[in-house]
């Protein structure tokens, strides 16, 4: 801290404090000097790159405890939790976005060619590819540009491509990149010990690979990176906190599962520069062995291979050195045939064959230490009876396989915490014995599976449940309601209704949802609730962040009630009577009654609902980024009609379903309103 205070004093008055860095002053002396210097002055001070909340607290509560009127203190940090500690309100935090393509190109060209127009035509495409790797990060762009600027006239196009292909695979060794490497290394060494292996583990995945959050966390657990001495602790929740911490430290980037899907940020990627670093560190520590298309062969090392990741099928895999392999992952579909004998990997913990052209996995019953078995999107038709011998198995992923019925021995997997199946798979009797399960999806239930529905209530540790209901009768409805009532730890409930055009009778008004519920998703094509269930209210669901529901008719009171949900972030609500054409769009939704409504909402989809932006009073929905609503073209001609987007400060995307064939006037009005908004949000139309 002494160094920080000395630097602040020096920057405030370089002449007066020219030798301050050599002074042997105590911390209190430095603080008093700083307070005295700033006393009565109006100032703007920027403190760059704060890494620790405690450091900020000491700075704020000592030297800047009495801020002069009109003065401001600005901080920068790469860690989200630190930014939150630095501000009294979330509205005071500005999240820097990556540079746009145009700005990235300008920065790159000016550094390499000294002129934006100095790039020759033959280097335009490779420049674009290099900038894509840099991902809009100024430090990465400047570092790579500096490397090329040293002698760009002497470098051929092939040499530029050679540089491009080396980014992200630990092959660049040039002094021009040392500054960037130092910063990244500092970020790595600043990680707590429990996060370092979690980050290095990401080098298993290929460049630009979309890494699903759930899959990664379950693999961390299976590798033993996530551990708690307290038996009541959910390892997944602990692993999820590790994931969030890596995001907060900007070591990984959150992305949507469907492109820029704001409400479904359940995936991440590793920036190429970070991947370059962790691949190098992993290789140095023999943490992970990667076989890819960079021309490498199986390393001729005396050291044992612990974790093997194969990215290319044109590689000879020598299984004679794999007796100690703990993790085996394949990212290409036809390499399994070249692997001689996976059954010889006797200490294997993680086997991930997702997407591989494999049909026979009879050997897995002999891999007694297996914790994670990923067979998603393979041609496997059945599991061996010996699967029940895998008493340490935590995760079993069978989605997209050809399995029609699970082996009865599956119910012996008492440590199984995550089971992914397809709704068409028939589960064996006794599924209620899997009492360690925290995640189950997608379970198919019908009126014929009454016993299975009842057994669901025995899985009291479930946090995530996805169910497809088909042709439920009254007895099944009641059994499902009772079973769900026993799941007091449930955080996410997704129910897909696969029935004819009818009202949903599931979960009566007397059902009491768990207070832990955060996500509630009812999916159906034709089925809908007659009205909003009474148990969907702020008191019963104080933590609810995601809601998707279809109602027979959506009234103003429903929108008003949902606006009072304190944690709601994503809302999708359908008015069935309008969508199916039973009723016409006659009036827009009236304005809501309070400016305190929708405090956390970022995404609102009002489908078949005339919920125009003007219904949000000024001050409501301060974080709303994505809005979808229905709009009748005839409303434009009404006197004093107001779309009212301007007071939604965070708006980034607007989707409008325009009703009426002649929509040109409505389109023009909408474009004008969007253009007038300070954010210039993206505008998309659908005309009915």
From TrEMBL:
Organism per entry: Triticum urartu
List residues of the Disease resistance R13L4/SHOC-2-like LRR domain: 324-682
Instruction: Return the Gene3D superfamilies for the record.
Output: Helical domain of apoptotic protease-activating factors, P-loop containing nucleotide triphosphate hydrolases, Ribonuclease Inhibitor, Winged helix-like DNA-binding domain superfamily/Winged helix DNA-binding domain
Q: Which GO terms describe its biological process?
A: defense response to bacterium; innate immune response-activating signaling pathway; plant-type hypersensitive response
What keywords sit in the KW lines? Plant defense, Repeat
Name the InterPro entries on file: Apaf_helical (IPR042197), Disease_R_plants (IPR044974), LRR_dom_sf (IPR032675), LRR_R13L4/SHOC2-like (IPR055414), NB-ARC (IPR002182), P-loop_NTPase (IPR027417), WH-like_DNA-bd_sf (IPR036388), WHD_DRP (IPR058922)
Q: Does the keyword Thylakoid apply?
A: no
Q: Which branch of life, at top level?
A: Eukaryota
Name of the protein in question: NB-ARC domain-containing protein
Domain named Disease resistance protein winged helix: residues = 204-278
Instruction: Name the Pfam families on file.
Output: LRR_14, NB-ARC, WHD_DRP
Q: Where is the NB-ARC domain?
A: 2-116
Cite the PANTHER family for this sequence: DISEASE RESISTANCE PROTEIN RP, OS12G0273300 PROTEIN
- What is a GO molecular function of this protein? ADP binding
Q: Could you confirm whether the keyword Repeat appears in this record?
A: yes
Lineage of this protein's species?
Answer: Eukaryota, Viridiplantae, Streptophyta, Embryophyta, Tracheophyta
SUPFAM superfamilies cross-referenced by the UniProt entry: L domain-like, P-loop containing nucleoside triphosphate hydrolases
């Amino acid at each position: 801290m002494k160094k920080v205070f000395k630097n602040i004093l020096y920057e405030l008055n370089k002449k007066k404090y020219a030798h301050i860095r050599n002074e042997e002053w105590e911390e209190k002396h430095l603080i008093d000097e700083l307070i005295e210097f700033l006393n009565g002055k109006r100032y703007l001070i920027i403190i760059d790159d704060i890494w620790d909340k405690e450091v900020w607290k000491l700075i704020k509560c000592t030297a800047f405890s009495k801020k002069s009127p009109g003065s401001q203190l600005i901080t920068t940090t790469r860690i989200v939790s630190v930014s939150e500690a630095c501000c009294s309100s979330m509205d005071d935090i500005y999240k820097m976005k990556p540079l746009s393509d145009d700005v990235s190109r300008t920065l790159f060209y000016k550094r390499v060619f000294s002129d934006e127009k100095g790039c020759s035509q033959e280097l335009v495409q490779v420049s674009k590819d290099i900038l894509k790797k840099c991902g809009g990060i100024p430090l990465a762009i400047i570092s790579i540009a500096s490397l090329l600027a040293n002698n760009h006239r002497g470098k051929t196009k092939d040499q530029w491509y050679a540089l491009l292909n080396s980014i992200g695979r630990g092959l660049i060794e040039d002094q021009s990149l040392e500054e960037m490497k130092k910063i990244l290394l500092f970020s790595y060494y600043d990680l707590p010990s429990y996060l370092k292996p979690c980050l290095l583990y990401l080098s298993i995945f290929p460049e630009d690979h979309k890494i699903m959050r759930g899959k990664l966390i379950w693999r961390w657990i299976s590798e033993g990176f996530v551990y708690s001495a307290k038996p009541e602790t959910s390892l997944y929740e602990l692993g999820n906190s590790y994931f969030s911490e890596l995001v907060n430290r900007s070591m990984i980037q959150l992305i949507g599962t469907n492109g820029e899907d704001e409400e479904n940020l359940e995936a991440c990627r590793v920036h190429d520069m970070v991947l370059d670093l962790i691949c190098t560190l992993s290789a140095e520590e023999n943490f992970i062995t990667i076989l890819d298309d960079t021309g490498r062969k199986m390393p001729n090392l005396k050291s044992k291979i612990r974790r093997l990741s194969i990215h290319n099928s044109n590689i000879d895999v020598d299984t004679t050195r794999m007796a100690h392999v703990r993790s085996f992952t394949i990212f290409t579909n036809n390499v399994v045939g070249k692997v001689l004998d996976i059954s010889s990997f006797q200490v294997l913990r993680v086997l991930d064959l997702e997407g591989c052209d494999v049909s026979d996995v009879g050997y897995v019953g002999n891999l007694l230490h297996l914790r994670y078995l990923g067979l998603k999107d393979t041609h496997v038709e059945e599991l061996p009876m010996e699967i029940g011998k895998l008493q340490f198995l935590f995760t079993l992923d069978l989605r997209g396989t050809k399995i029609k019925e699970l082996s009865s021995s599956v119910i012996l997997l008492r440590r199984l915490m995550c089971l992914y199946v397809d709704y068409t798979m028939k589960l064996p009797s006794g599924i209620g014995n899997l009492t360690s399960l925290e995640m189950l999806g997608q379970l198919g239930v019908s009126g014929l599976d009454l016993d299975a529905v009842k057994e669901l209530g025995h899985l009291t540790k479930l946090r995530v449940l996805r169910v497809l209901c088909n042709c439920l009768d009254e007895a099944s409805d009641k059994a499902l309601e009772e079973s769900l009532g026993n799941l007091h730890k449930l955080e996410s409930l997704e129910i897909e209704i696969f029935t004819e055009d009818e009202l949903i009778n599931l979960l009566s008004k007397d059902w009491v949802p768990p207070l832990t519920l955060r996500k509630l998703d009812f999916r159906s094509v034709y089925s809908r609730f007659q009205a909003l269930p009474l148990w969907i209210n702020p008191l019963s669901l104080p933590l609810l962040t995601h809601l998707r529901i279809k109602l027979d008719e959506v009234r103003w009171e429903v929108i008003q009630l949902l606006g009072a949900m304190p944690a709601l972030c994503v809302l999708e609500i359908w008015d069935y009577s309008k969508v199916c054409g039973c009723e016409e769009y006659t009036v827009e939704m009236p304005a809501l009654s309070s400016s305190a409504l929708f405090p956390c909402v970022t995404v609102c989809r009002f489908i078949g609902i005339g919920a125009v932006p003007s219904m949000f009073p000024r001050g409501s929905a301060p974080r709303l980024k994505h809005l979808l609503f229905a709009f009748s073209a005839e409303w434009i001609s009404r006197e004093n009609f107001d779309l009212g987007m301007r007071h939604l400060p965070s708006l980034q995307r607007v989707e409008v379903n325009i009703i009426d064939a002649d929509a040109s006037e409505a389109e023009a009005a909408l474009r004008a309103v969007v253009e007038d908004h300070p954010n210039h949000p993206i505008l998309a139309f659908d005309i009915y």
